[in-house]
């Protein structure tokens, strides 16, 4: 079984007077540096860790401990919610685009073909009307006979849509 013991640093066990706002202006640079350095700790110069082989990923993983766990959870939940919202938006957009495009093909293509056919019939009727007008101008005597035949029973048929 492993037994843990807490080792306190001398720096924190010795009591120093708490500086007031007046005293902080009078502190020298050396006194401020004493708060941040630990002269008795060993600097790991003789470490076997090679810094040249360290990757950016290794450095980012080491920075993970700097951010408190609550902040990490909040950041991760925010990133996850943004990622989920983006995925659902793209998924919905893709499905909606599929429905719209297939509906356009299934409904639009037959309508366009029927419309083009109707335009052809209208164009043919115009051409026939122009031909009748040209024939009447060339042979003025046959106009009365053609009018009598047309009124007697020949109807032109129109295409139905």
Automatic annotation (TrEMBL):
Membrane topology term: Single-pass membrane protein
InterPro entries: Tom22
Spans annotated as Disordered: 1-37
Example of a GO biological process term: intracellular protein transport
Entry keyword annotation includes Transmembrane: yes
Subcellular location: Mitochondrion outer membrane
Main location, first listed in the record: mitochondrion
A cellular component annotation (GO) from this entry: mitochondrial outer membrane
Keywords assigned: Membrane, Mitochondrion, Mitochondrion outer membrane, Protein transport, Receptor, Translocation, Transmembrane, Transmembrane helix, Transport
UniProt xrefs under Pfam families: Tom22
UniProt entry tagged with the keyword Transmembrane: yes
Similarity-based family: Belongs to the Tom22 family.
Protein name: Mitochondrial import receptor subunit tom22
